[in-house]
Here is the input.
Amino acid sequence: MDLLRSIIFLYLSFFIQAFTATGQSTYTRNALTGGEVILPCDYDQAADGDWIVITWSALMDGSFQNLFVRTTGSTDNSITPPAQFAGRLAIDGETNLRLTGVTIADEDEYRCIVTATNNPTTLVNLLVFKQPTAPGPNVQGQYDPPTSDTSKVPLNTTVTFTCTSTGGRPPASLTWTVTKDSTPVSVTPTYTTTNDSQGVGDAMSTFNFTTTEYSVTYSVQCTASGPDPIQSRTSAITSFTTESDTKPTPAPGTGAPISTGAIVGIVIGVIAALALTAALVYFLLIREKKPGKGKEDGGAQSPDDGYDDVLSRNTAPGIDESDDDGYEVPMEPVRPVPPPPQPSGDYQELRPAVYQSLQKF
Here is the structure.
């Protein structure tokens, strides 16, 4: 039986080589490492007639090597595939090939030939990707100068955010979502990658800015993505708020203690205020009543002595009595005027002449 199958296979192989393909299709399929993929093989019974053999092969070391050969009436593989494909190949439907447990080494070109009237041929380019390492991108924030309280970050602080994604094939594409009080903010990040010999690598993106506004909240997220079927993943939200422009009033008993300098200043201020008040009171009292001169004989002035308001009677020209400069003329006691001497006879005779001489003055 095995000999018969071998003879049939050789015959069919010769038969395939003898026919020229009249139609060819090309496809590209993407797969994730560890997953599975269906490789399509075009065949139309109405146009191509009944098929006899379906042969799948892969380009290995510069030439196509058979992976799976299906003959009419069977779904099994009539050949032994290369060791790296053992147990991972199966026919899906009538002509398609299912490949499971995909590895990076499976990335290659595959070919399906349907032996029929028209011998349709299908080429499939398989691309293999690797999902970045779970749980997803990681975001780190750095503050310069450093701060431990992200609820009141000081102004003029340089904030740097870094997003990293590891183990992707190709390295993940990284994008940022930044908002300021829920309003989108545009940033200009840097992007760098590293790769190993199989194309697996890490990605890193960084941006920074300086805080310039009070009481605003920034929210930052990073998304790692890649070609289908890589799933996009987004980091947790990282937020911080800048400091307020007003300092809170301390509760009674909780304020900062008064410094020694402040206490000295308060004491000096109080003493100066008291001195100013005493000087003002003294000045007002002196203006209210100023003591007069004593009697010529040095005796104490009697309360019964009268005072002559010289200022009111003999105000010097140009002096305003309402002037606030404190100008005063001392009050002099009024002395009794002695009675005039009784005129003598001579005085009576000279009286007119005396009056005339006095009038000259």
About this structure: The first helix runs from residue 2 to 18. The helical segments are 2-18, 45-48, 260-288, 310-313, 345-360. The longest strand covers residues 158-168.
